[in-house]
Design brief:
By secondary structure, the chain is an alpha/beta fold. It is 36% helix and 23% strand.
C-alpha cells in the first residue's frame, strides 16, 4: 500500500494498545513524527477497522480533543500451551480480553503436533476471526524452532512456527513457557523495570523465566532459564535434586531451591523470585528464605512470592500474541 510507513504503523499500534497513548499530539511527541503523518496513518488504521476515533469531553471551553483506541472486535487471537497430557487454549480479542478458554487431553505417547493442529483447525472453523497464534512449550525455542525438549521428544528439533504457519497461513509466535509466564506476571503486576525470576518446579521439569530491568533474557543460544541442568551437589543437578519430592517439599528440595536462590541472588540480584502457588506453600517460602540465609547475607535475598502460574502463562501468551499482531502489515498491504 503506497505511502505507508510500516514501522510507524507498528509503533502507533503499540503506543495505543500497550501504553494507552490516545491523542495525535501525544503520539506525535512519543514517536517523533509530524502531526499530519500520524493523522494520515491513524486514518489508514481507522479505514481498516483497527482503530476508532472518539471525541473527548470539552475541557476549559476549548475544542474537544479527538482520541483513538483499539477496536476490541477487530480481530481475535488464539493462545495455546502444551502440557504432557493436554493442550490448553485461550481465545482473546484485539485488546487482550479473554473470550473463552479450555483444555483438551493428549493421549499417552501421542505426538503433540498433530493434536495441536487438530485443536487449532477446530477453533479456526468455529472462530473465523482468529488471525494470529501464540504457542507456549516447555522447551528451549529459537526463532520458532524447538531445540531442547527433554520431556517432549516428539517436539525435539521441530520448526513449530514454520509448521503452523504453513498449515494455517497465519502469523505464529512460539515461546518458552517460563518466558511467557514471567512476561505475564510483569505485565499483570506492572513491575516496570524490575528484575524478576519466575521459578517452576512442576510436571514439565524445572525451568525459569528471567527479566532483568524489565527485559527478557534469552541468552546467547536461547538457553537461559534451563535450570534443570545446573550442578548443585557432587553428582546431582538441580533437576535431579528435586525429582523425588512429593506433594510437599522435602528437606533436600528446600536446600536445592535455596542453593539456586543463592545463585540467582549472587549473579542476577533480582527484586522478586516468583513461585507457582500450586507447588510451593507459604510455609515453604519461609523455609527457603531461612535456608538461603545460611548461604548468603539476607539483605541480598530477593522477595519470595507465590503467584498463579497458569494465569500468568496465559496472560504472557496473550501479550506476546498481541505484540505479534501489531507487527503485521495492514490488511491488503503486501509484506
Amino acid at each position: 500500500m503506497a505511502g505507508i510507513n510500516t514501522e510507524l504503523v507498528k509503533k502507533l499500534r503499540q503506543a495505543i494498545l500497550f501504553q494507552g497513548i490516545r491523542t495525535i499530539p501525544e503520539l506525535s511527541r512519543l514517536l517523533s513524527a509530524s502531526f499530519p503523518t500520524v493523522k494520515k496513518h491513524l486514518e489508514i488504521l481507522i479505514a481498516h477497522g483497527e482503530v476508532e476515533e472518539q471525541i473527548s469531553e470539552l475541557s476549559n471551553g476549548g475544542r474537544p480533543a479527538k482520541q483513538y483506541q483499539y477496536r476490541a472486535e477487530h480481530a481475535q487471537g488464539l493462545a495455546l500451551y502444551l502440557e504432557l497430557d493436554a493442550v490448553g487454549f485461550r481465545i482473546f480479542d484485539a485488546v487482550g480480553t479473554s473470550l473463552t478458554s479450555g483444555t483438551e487431553p493428549v493421549g499417552t505417547n501421542q505426538p503433540h503436533v498433530p493434536a495441536l493442529i487438530r485443536l487449532i483447525t477446530r477453533q479456526l472453523e468455529q472462530n473465523p476471526r482468529i488471525r494470529f497464534l501464540s504457542v507456549g512449550v516447555a522447551a528451549s525455542v529459537e526463532n520458532g524452532q524447538v531445540f531442547f525438549a527433554p520431556d517432549y521428544p516428539s517436539l525435539q528439533q521441530v520448526d513449530l512456527k514454520g509448521t503452523l504457519e504453513s498449515q494455517f497461513g497465519l502469523p505464529v509466535v512460539v515461546e518458552n513457557d517460563m518466558n511467557a509466564a514471567v512476561i505475564g506476571f510483569h505485565e499483570g503486576h506492572q513491575r516496570r523495570q524490575q528484575s524478576l525470576i519466575y521459578l517452576y518446579l512442576g510436571k514439565n521439569g524445572p525451568g525459569a523465566g528471567i527479566l532483568i530491568n524489565g527485559q527478557l533474557v534469552r541468552g546467547s543460544s536461547h538457553f537461559a532459564g534451563e535450570i534443570s541442568v545446573v550442578p548443585q551437589y557432587d553428582k546431582k543437578t538441580f533437576g535431579q535434586a528435586i525429582a523425588k519430592r512429593q506433594t510437599a517439599l522435602d528437606t533436600q528440595s528446600i536446600d536445592a531451591i535455596s542453593r539456586l536462590t543463592t545463585t540467582f541472588a549472587a549473579t542476577l540480584n533480582p527484586h522478586l523470585l516468583i513461585f507457582n502457588g500450586n507447588e510451593v506453600a507459604a510455609d515453604d517460602l519461609e523455609q527457603i528464605r531461612i535456608k538461603t540465609a545460611e548461604y548468603i547475607t539476607e539483605a541480598h535475598i530477593p522477595l519470595l512470592i507465590r503467584s498463579n502460574w497458569e494465569a500468568d502463562y496465559l496472560n504472557g501468551l496473550t501479550r506476546i500474541g498481541l505484540h505479534l499482531s501489531t507487527e503485521q502489515p495492514v490488511r491488503g498491504e503486501s509484506k
